[in-house]
Amino acid sequence: MSLWVDKYRPTSLGKLDYHKEQAEYLKNMIQKGDFPHLLVYGPSGAGKKTRIMCIIRELYGCGVDRLRMETMTFETPSKKKLEITTISSNYHIEVNPSDVGIYDRVVVMDLVKTTAQTHQIDPSGQKEFKVVLLTNVDQLTKDAQHALRRTMEKYVATCRLILCANSTSRVLPAIRSRCLGIRVPAPSISDIKNILHLICKREGLTLPDELAKRLAETSSRNLRRAMLMLEACKVEQYPFTANQNITEPDWQVYIRNTASMMVSEQSPKKLLAIRSRLYELLTHAIPCDLIFKGLLQECIKNCDLQLKIEIATVAAEYEHRMHKGSKSIFHLEAFVARFMAIYKKFIDSSLEGFV
Amino acid sequence: MESEFPDPNEEFDLVHEEEYEILKEIEEFEKKKGTESGKIENLQEEQKRNKLNNSRPNVHEELNALTSSKYNKSCIPSTSKVIPSTNNDNFDTDVTKKRHYDEFFGDISDMLDTNDLADIQEPKDKKPRWDEPQEIIKAVLDAREKFNEYSRGVSVNSKYIKDKRESISLRVPHWNFIALTRPRDAQRIYLRVKNDEQSKIKTNTHSISNLLSVPYSQLKTEAEEIIVQNVKHASCETSHLPVTKTLEDDELWVDKYRPRSYIELLSDESVNRQLLHWIKLWDKTVFNRNYIDNKKKKLNFKFRNRKFADEKPFQELDSKGFPIQRIALLSGPPGLGKTTLAHLVAKHAGYNVVEINASDERSPDAFRQVLLASTQMKAVIGNDPRPNCLVLDEIDGAPTASIDLLLKFVQGKLIPKGKKDKTKTDKHVCHRPVICICNEPYTPSLRALRATAFIISVPEVSATKLADRLMEISRKEKLKVNSDALLRLVEISGCDIRSCIGALQYMGGVNLGDNLSFALKDSRKGLFDSWKQILKIPVNRNGILPLSERVQLVLRTVQNGESEKLAQGIFHNYPEICSDKMNYIALCLKWFQFFDEILFLVGSLQTWSIMPYLNYAFVFWHLYFAKARNIKLSYPSIVYEMNQKHAKNIGILTTVQRNSGHNKIILTVDIAPFLPDLLSPQLRTVSGHLHSDKEKNDINRLVNVLIDFGLTFIQEKNFDERYDYKLDPNIFEIGTFPDCKYRRTLIYAVKQIIVQELEAERLRRVENAIKSMTKSAQNKKSITNHNVTTNSATSDSAKICNNATSKPNALEQSKKLQMETKDIKYKDFFGRTITVNQGEQKKLDKESIKSRNFLTKNSVWYKYKEGFSNAVRRNVKMIDLL
User: Fold this and answer.
1) What is the pLDDT of residues B569-603, one digit of tens each?
2) Where are the domains of chain A?
């Protein structure tokens, strides 16, 4: 693994750089031999996956490092063939059921059940359960989550589920109550800074403290992004300077520009221009809630408090409706138009105040 | 008339530009004539008087003659029979000069003629000038109205002449005939046998020259006819219509009152003109006269209208003088007179129309035959030497293969069967205009045609115009109908001319008002019509419809079940149409959200019961978005494009995910945006061994990243014939957005280096993998024995990985390593140390010493080949090369 993100990923609970107390608890839990299903949640880039892999390694030893990537095929009741990529070792299997969209229920039913139903052949010297790691649980459909519910209880003797999610709000309460929730908060700025320094030391580079701080800030406390940014900076210009240009992800810049278009002019024509930009974002497979969030965060910046509340409420409602539908462009544009309407009214009234 | 053009100032500027020129021409022409001789002036006066004195049909006849005169000179004799002798002397003088500008402005020659009339009849100072558009428009419209008044709807004469031509033959014809002998020269003549009415018509127009060969009974009826006519002329009150009515009672009114000349067309003037203009563009290839050049000159001359020039891209001809769009595609709902329009315009421009419609065989083979026959050949024998114009009616029903064939043919790629000389490709290019007619231009089979053809969509005829025409017909047919009933008929039929006339004929006007329902067509409309219905405020005579009716109308429109497409179209088109009120738009968009939610619910839970609520969204959109003015809609093809693009990007992501094991979301959000930066280090374009250490590291890292993500560079040919390396799968596309940040890209030479390194590294990895597998097998067998070798092997491969680029280094190291492992060294022909590689070593260890010696000896052998000088051969493993 050659990207720094992969290269300097901690491999055991003891080597984790932050939230050390939590790591300690996890270690204790595993050493006791048995643990309930886990639901690991936290923002992206906080190190959930790293932590989970550490747990699994702690359980089974270095055998988990021998990973196989496989493509499994399933068939839906309507005879549609599905393919899903799994990453597995002898001891665990990792799946992202939401890859297959609305058919995730079939994956959960088939894959998890078959894995869970088979016992370990040789339990001596090993744990008698396997681990099934499901990622992006919050994107599972309700159907799939319901299907998961009973499975979790029934096969607890032979398998442990580790669920990984960004937020618990879209996970059914029934599932939440069956799992031990482990929250992995985003690393603090200073945490990120320390890690960046550490990496540079190991790479034999010198990193100005100033730049490290700026990197940590622009990454919005996403460690993965911070490390990638650091690497990009290194490629760009090696002897680092404090005020070096930091590459931001294009999509963020793009959303920011879009938001500034919304603020600059409120007219159907502008709406049309914004629509094409939204389409562009959507075709680049940027998740629509990220677009929503980005737009809101940007365009709320030059509003007063009253307006902020109003717009945030509206955004919340619209985003909720977006998840109830399927064509996100309608909802995104509806939000844009609504914002424009509100903002225009606000501007007009404030102008009247002047006159 | 006026109502047809909402803004006469502008539209006439564009559309009637030609008329201005003509009027100007006329003026000049007039002046010239005036100075040339007063005699002609006198003649004209005389002619004028004649005209005034003459009965009305006379005027009409002259018009016809003028129109046909421009086709070809050889045509004139056949048609000029109709021209009354009083006009002939004057006419002869005129013809040559008229032809002069007929050649340029043939398309409006009939208009011109009427203009001429109008001009002559008016005092000179009153004549409108071309720079006063209003006046000219008025003049043109007046002329047209006058013409409408004069014309009795049908000009039957020319038809009869044609009939005659077809019904008399000197050879034994293929139709039913009666043989007659001409007493004068004993020539056998074969006459067509027809049913009674038609033969009567024939006699009606029999010319005097053939008098003798006609039986007495016919002569008698003819004489009677003439008497009747004379009586009527004398009373000056009349038309020959009652007569024709009794004669051709069984003819459909639709055919009977089909427009016979350009000026009678009901369809929108701009559309007529567009088609005419297009067909005129062919003049250069077909008639070898310049239409465009003269036009251009005129445009440059004084009142060049920039807008006009810009708005008609099809004006350009290509280098060979063909119009760029070689096919015209007329589209529109049934019954608007598309076929009539095509026929008339083609005839008008001097073509002979060859029609292929759905009733003809249209399999590719048959199609090919007809195409070749009609466009590349010319009637030699027939007395109609005009070139053909192909009209493909109802083309939306033709098989796709046929349409492909048509396209190929038009582009000149089709070579007639049997002939294979590709040298004269120019010969096979279609030299004749092709007009296609269809109802629904968005039929899948027409997709290819749509891209290349010049598309003219025929709009609905204005209701009042149609009602007027119906009124005229009913007057001629002596029906008593009130205009309100007619208007209602028009409204119900959806401005379908054909069905209106049909209804009129069969209802006989008696109870038209009561029994309207039969005229109702299947009300299913195309997407565009539905969108238009929703986005346009419906208007009838009394202004805007009341709200409740509008709601009903919209609900009826959206009933047909294509609500998703409809909503998509409205979403696509509304920002162009709607007003600036953002809060309305926000409200309407809420309905789109509603729409989406309902649709999703229906889709996922199959709750069809909530489906009807969708339709109310359309009502809302109608109320907020609809506009009274005419709107231009476009098809929401962007949705399809976006889906395609999204699917492609997801495909890229899946491949990368499969190789790297990273989640899709993580890939898109975090990794892909940085990859373009990470994968384009600054490298000099020098050969590998000249790179500095830093550069080597960069390349190494780059190669590793590429392999981790399963990416390669693939050589591709660019559109400008240059080679370039493309990333495959191209994850850069996901990471980068337009107009965001400039990114450095690697130049070709650097990519080449990288690709080389990439291949090398890949082979190395495969080698290592194989080695490690064999090693592990080895380890299991005898762990103790081979510790040393395996260790050395791992260190060896590691080192090679580290400085892979320097070959001599690697060799040296392998030398050293061999010293360490105390292997037996062999020297080859050139004195180099021979590396004994691991796979063989394994075997060696297993074999006895004797056989080992044998094997090692045999790893180098000599073979003599005559004339071929690879004297030394040995096994070379990949690792030795890297």
Assistant:
1) 888 888 888 777 888 888 889 999 999 999 998 98
2) 4-183, 189-236, 250-354
d(C-alpha B439, C-alpha B496), whole Å: 13
B755-801 pLDDT per residue, tens: 888 888 888 888 888 888 887 776 655 544 444 444 444 444 444 44
A252 to chain B: which residues are within 8 Å by CB?
673
Among B173, B172, B175, B164, residue whose Cα is nearest residue B213:
B164
Chain B residues within an 8 Å CB radius of A285: 646, 649-650, 653, 664, 668, 734
Question: 3-class DSSP state for residue A246?
Answer: coil
What is the Cα Rg of chain A in Å?
23
Q: Per the CB < 8 Å rule, is B670 touching A224?
A: yes
CATH of region A4-183: 3.40.50.300
Q: How far is B576 from chain A (nearest CA, A)?
A: 7
Among B638, B650, B663, beta carbon nearest to A96? B663
Q: Give ipTM to 2 decimals.
A: 0.89
Count of CB atoms situated within 10 Å of the CB of B340: 19
Cβ proximity of B464 and B217 under 8 Å: no
DSSP per residue over B50-70, as a string?
HHHHS-HHHHHHHHHHHHHHT
Map out the domains of chain B as residue ranges: 2-150, 157-256, 272-329+343-457, 463-519, 527-635, 641-757, 782-881
Residue of chain B whose alpha carbon sits nearest to that of A142: B604
CB distance B575–A268 less than 8 Å?
Answer: yes
Name the CATH superfamily for B272-329+343-457: P-loop containing nucleotide triphosphate hydrolases (3.40.50.300)
Residues in chain B: 882
| DSSP labels, B361-385 | --SHHHHHHHHHHHHH---SSSS--
CATH no. of B463-519: 1.10.8
Half-sphere exposure for A188 (CA within 13 Å, toward CB)? 4
The 3-state DSSP class for residue A192 equals helix
The two three-digit tokens of residue B87, written as one number: 């006009």
> A75-85 burial, b for 16+ CB within 10 Å, e for fewer?
eeeeeeebebb
Tokens of B600: 């999703």
Contact criterion met (CB < 8 Å) for B666 and A232: no
At the second CATH level, the architecture of A250-354 is Up-down Bundle (1.20)
Residue A93 DSSP SS3: strand
Chain B residues within 8 A of A65 when measuring between CB atoms = none
Q: How many CB pairs under 8 A join A and B?
A: 175
Identity of the residue in A285, A321, A334 whose CB atom sits nearest the CB atom of B734: A285
